[in-house]
Amino acid sequence: MKKCFLACLLLFFSCTAFGQQFGITGRLSDSLGRPLPNAAVQLTAVADSSLVSFALSDRKGNFRIRGLEYGIYLLEITFLGYRPYAQTVSPPENGGILDLRNISLEPASQELEGVTVQGKRLPMRIHNDTLEFNAGAFGTRPNAAVEDLLKKLPGVEVDADGTIRAQGEEVDRVTVDGEEFFGDDPKIASRNLPAAAVDNVQVFDKKSDKAMFTGVDDGQEQKTINLELKEGYRKSTFGSITAGGGTDERFAGNASINRFNQGQQLSFLGMANNTNEQGFSIGDYLSFTNGPQGRRGGGPGFRIQTREAGPGASAGSQGPPLNTGQAVNGMMTNWAGGVNFRDAFSNKLEVSGNYFADYLNHETDQSLERINYLPDGSYRFLQNGLQQNDHTGHRAGTVLDYRPDSSNSFRLNASFNYHQTHTSSDNDSRTLGTDNETASSSRQTNLAEGNNLALNADLLYRRRFGKPGRTLSANMTLGLGDSRREGELEALSEFQQSDLPPEMIRQDNSESAGSRLVGAGLSYTEPLNANVFLELNYELRQQLNDVSRNVWDITPQAPSYNELLSSEYESDYRYQRGGLNFQLNGNSYHITAGMNYQQSRLNGELLLRDTVISRDFQSFLPSLQFRYDFPGDRHLEFDYRTRLREPSIEELQPVTDNSDPLNLYKGNPDLRPAYMHQARLHFMTFDPSSLIHFFTFLDLNYMTDAISYSQTVNEQFVRTTQPVNAGEQVELRANANFGFPLSELNSRLGFSAGANSTRGTSLLNGAENRTRQQEISAGLRYNYRPGELLDLTLSGNISRQQNRFESGEDQLFINQRYQAQANCSFFENYGLEVNFGYLLYNSHPGEFNQEIPLLDVSLSRYVFKNKSGEIRLSVDNLLDKDLGVSQQAGANYIERSVTESLGRYAMLSFTYAINKQLNPANQRRGKMIHIGR
C-alpha cells in the first residue's frame, strides 16, 4: 500500500515538471475606484475558444488564476450593472505572474465598442429539478468514453459493471439530446459515445409522456442522464474504432460510428471481446439464467450484497458499494452490434428506432459457503460448481410521433425482445450439521435451454383545447409474453446422519408461460384559474397468465408423470383506478395533492389440483408533491406517494423447484399485494461564488403486508424457501454529498455519507423472527488537476453494516475500498494511466477476512493529426488476482462465494477517432475549473 502511494507521488512530481506555467492577477473596481467583489472572471483559449479557467473576485476586488500553460488567452470579466470587459493576455517573458493591476469596469449605460463577449459558463447549475454540468469543466483523457466523464461529476458514481448512480439512485436511462439512444439501456450510451462530443450533462427525474403533456405528475419517473452534444457534433460524422489483441488469446474490438445532421441521427455499434467487458446491459441474461434460485434465502424483504468487481472488470473502475451492483465474474466472451436511427420525415412526423443483437458465452468455476443459523445452533452448506451459459438476444424498439396540427398529437412506443439461453451445470454440495460433521451430500447435473419473447406497445393521444391548460390525453397499452424452457436434472443425494437411503433423481421437465396484457387510461385537466388546475384520471388494466410446468421421472420402465412437482396455473388479474389531482403553481413553488381509489381482483385456478383462487382488494392511494426553488441555485422537493406491490407470477405459482435437492423453492398462491407508503425529501444547492455544492435526500418507505420469505429446515437440513406476507417493513435511507474547490492547490475535495435502516420480519420453521439492518458509510475523494499534463485522484470508502435478529446470531460487515488513479501526459504525444484499487472485506461471525489489491497500467502513444490515433499497451490485473469475491446475507444465513476470473493479461490495441478535429485533444487548455465531489 505504501509503495503504491509513493509511486503515485513520484508520478505526480515527475509529470508536473514537464510544462512551464504562469499565473494572472488583478484588481477590479468601478469608475470611482471602489472594489467589485464576486465579479466573474473567465479565461478561454484563443486557439479553440475552449473554457480554461474561471474565478470570482474577492471582497477587495482581487482575483488570481494560477497553473496556466504557455499560450494566448482571452480574459473576460462580467459584473451585474457593468459592461463586459475583454482583453487578450499572453504569458510574461520571464514566466511567473502577469499582474494586470487595476481594471476599471464601466457602467452598463456606456458602450464598449469592438468587443464581442460570450456569456460565462459555470461548471454546474441548478434549474428547477435538473442538475446540469458543463462537461468542459471536467477534463478527460483523449479518446475517453462518456463513462469516464460521468465518474468525474459530483454526486455521480459508476460501478465496475457500468451501473450508473446519481445522487444515490440508480440511473434508468441515458438519452442523447433528449432522445433515446438504443432504447432504455444506459450503458450503450455511456460506454460507446466519446466524452469529447458532450457539451452538457443533465441529471433529472424524467416524467412520463402523459405527465409532461398535462403538467400533472403521475408518479411514473425514471432517473435519467441526458447528454447534450456540442454544436459541431450535431452536424457531423464522429465516433471511434478500436482493435486489440493480447496474451492468453485475449482480444477486444469496438466500433461506434454516428452521423448526426439537423435532427437526423444514425448510429452503428459493434463490439467483441473475451475480457469480461460489456458495452451493454445483460439483465435479461442474468434473470433468465438465475431463475427462482436468485430469490432463495431472502431475509425480511432485503438481502445485503457486498459484491465487488473482480479482475474480470476494469480495476480502475469503482466497485459497487454495499447493497448495490452485481459484478459479473467468471470468463465471458461477448459479441454484439446494432443500429439506432431518428428522422423527421416532415414537420408532422418523426420516427426513431433501434435494433441490437448480442451473443454471450459465460463460464464460471465457483465455490460457495453458506452458514445457516437455527434457534438451537447452526449448520454449513458447501458447494463447488461449474456452469456454462450461452445466450443469444435480440431487441428492437421504435417511437413514432405524429402531430397532424398544433392541437393534436399521437405517440406510438413499441418494443420487441427475444432471447435464447442454453445452460449446463455440475455441482457438488454437502451439508455439515451442528456437530460440524457431514449430514448430507448431493451431486447435481442440470441442463436447460429455452427462449423468451416479449412484445409491448403503448399508444398515447394528446389534445390541447383553446383554453390554456385544458387538455385531454388517452393511452392504450398492449403486451404479449411467451416463455418456454426444457431441462434435465440428475441428482444423487445421500443422508449420512439418518437411516434414509440414498435418493436418486432423474427427471425431464418443461415450463411454459404466456401472458397477455391490455390497458387503457384517460386524463383530463381543467384550469380553475391561471395558477390552479384540476385533473381527473381513470385507468383500467387486465393481465392474463397461463403457466405450465410438467415433470417426468425417468425410470427403467418408462417416464412417469410427477403430479407433485407439476402444475397448471391460470390467472386473471385486473384493476381499475380513478381519482383526481389538485395542482397549484406559483412563481417559485409547485404543489400537487391527489387521491386515487383502486379496486383489484385476482381470479386463479390450479388445474391439476382442482383449486380456485378468487380475491378482491380495495385501496385508497393518496399522494402529495411539493417543490420550491429558492433564489439562486437551490431546490427543495418533497414527494409522498402510495402504491400496491402485486406478487409476481413466479411468486404465486405453487410449484416446487428441486433443481438443488438440498435447497428447494416453492411459490405461494395465497400472497396478497403489499401496500407501500413512500416519502422523500430532496435538497440540492450550488453556490456560484464559492463553487460549493451540497446534495442530500431522505427516504422513508413503510410497507404493510410486506412480501418476505419463509424458510423451513427439516431434520436432514433440507431447506425450503417460500414467499409470504410478513406484516410490516420500514426502511429509512439518507444520503449526502458535499464538495468544494481548493483553488490554491488546483484541487477539489468531496465528501459523501449514507445511512440506511430497515426493520422487518422473516419466518424460520414457522416462527417469526424480527430483524433490523443498519448501515452507515462514508467516502472521501480528492482530485488534483493543475492542467492537461496530470490528473490525480485519491479516494476511499468505508461501510459498516450490522444485522440484528430477535432470534439468531447478529452479523457484522465492514468493507473498505481505496483507490488511486493517475493520468499523465508527457512528451506531447504520450500518456500514462495507472489505476490501483485495494479492497478489504471483514465479517463476523465466520471471521471472514479478504484483501484484494487490483492494479492496471497502460501506456499510450498518440499519432496522426489532432491525436486521432492512439496506440495503447495495457496490462490488466498486474498483480494477478484471478478471484472474484461475493458476499450476501439474510435473516438467518451468511453466504460467501469465490469465482475464478480473469488473471493478468497484456493487450496491445489501436484506436482511431473519427472527426477528432471537432474537439482537438492536443490543444493546451491550462487549468480546469474544479468543484468538489
UniProtKB/TrEMBL annotation:
<dbReference type="InterPro" id="IPR008969">
    <property type="entry name" value="CarboxyPept-like_regulatory"/>
</dbReference>
<protein>
    <submittedName>
        <fullName>Outer membrane receptor protein involved in Fe transport</fullName>
    </submittedName>
</protein>
<feature type="domain" description="Outer membrane protein beta-barrel">
    <location>
        <begin position="764"/>
        <end position="912"/>
    </location>
</feature>
<feature type="signal peptide">
    <location>
        <begin position="1"/>
        <end position="19"/>
    </location>
</feature>
<keyword id="KW-0998">Cell outer membrane</keyword>
<keyword id="KW-0472">Membrane</keyword>
<dbReference type="GO" id="GO:0009279">
    <property type="term" value="C:cell outer membrane"/>
</dbReference>
<feature type="region of interest" description="Disordered">
    <location>
        <begin position="419"/>
        <end position="449"/>
    </location>
</feature>
<keyword id="KW-0675">Receptor</keyword>
<feature type="domain" description="Outer membrane protein beta-barrel">
    <location>
        <begin position="464"/>
        <end position="744"/>
    </location>
</feature>
<dbReference type="InterPro" id="IPR036942">
    <property type="entry name" value="Beta-barrel_TonB_sf"/>
</dbReference>
<keyword id="KW-0732">Signal</keyword>
<feature type="compositionally biased region" description="Polar residues">
    <location>
        <begin position="419"/>
        <end position="445"/>
    </location>
</feature>
<dbReference type="Pfam" id="PF14905">
    <property type="entry name" value="OMP_b-brl_3"/>
</dbReference>
<dbReference type="InterPro" id="IPR041700">
    <property type="entry name" value="OMP_b-brl_3"/>
</dbReference>
<dbReference type="Pfam" id="PF13620">
    <property type="entry name" value="CarboxypepD_reg"/>
</dbReference>
